[in-house]
Amino acid sequence: MNHVMTKRPHTLFDYLRSKYRIRSDRRLAALLELSPPYLSKLRAGERKELAVMALAVHEVFGMPFAEIRRLTGSDLRGTRSKAGEI
Questions:
Q1: Does the CA dihedral 14-12-50-56 come out positive or negative?
Q2: Domain harbouring 36, CATH code
Q3: Chain-centroid distance, C-alpha 31
Q4: Secondary structure class of 56 (helix, strand, coil)
Q5: Whether the Cβ atoms of residue 56 and residue 33 lie closer than 8 Å to each other
Q6: Would you place residue 81 in the very low, low, confident or very high pLDDT band (cuts 50, 70, 90)?
Q7: 5 — pLDDT class (breaks 50, 70, 90)
């Protein structure tokens, strides 16, 4: 199973809220078209699907994936199987 792990999802959310003057996680979730509980779980590290969130951030804010990786401490690539493994 491929899990994309992140070390600091809260750093990205705090950065977005500060840069775009978003007053709450509820509003940030609405902008990213994520449910507030889902965003809360991502922030707390209870959910590890960073790729979904990274794509939403990229689409909504135009943030390059390299910047998302830098802020979260993640490579966004997850694990890859060796050739011939499925």
A1: positive
A2: 1.10.260
A3: 13
A4: helix
A5: yes
A6: very low
A7: very low
The answer to whether residue 83 sits within a structural domain is: no
Residue 41 tokens read as 């779980």
What gap in Å lies between CA 82 and CA 10, rounded to an integer?
32
Residue 84: inside a domain? no
Ranges of H-type helices in 1-86:
9-19, 25-32, 36-44, 50-61, 65-72
* Residue labelled with tokens 């993640």: 74
d(CA 86, CA 65): 27
Q: Provide the domain limits for residue 16.
A: 9-72
For residue 46, give both structure tokens: 């209870």
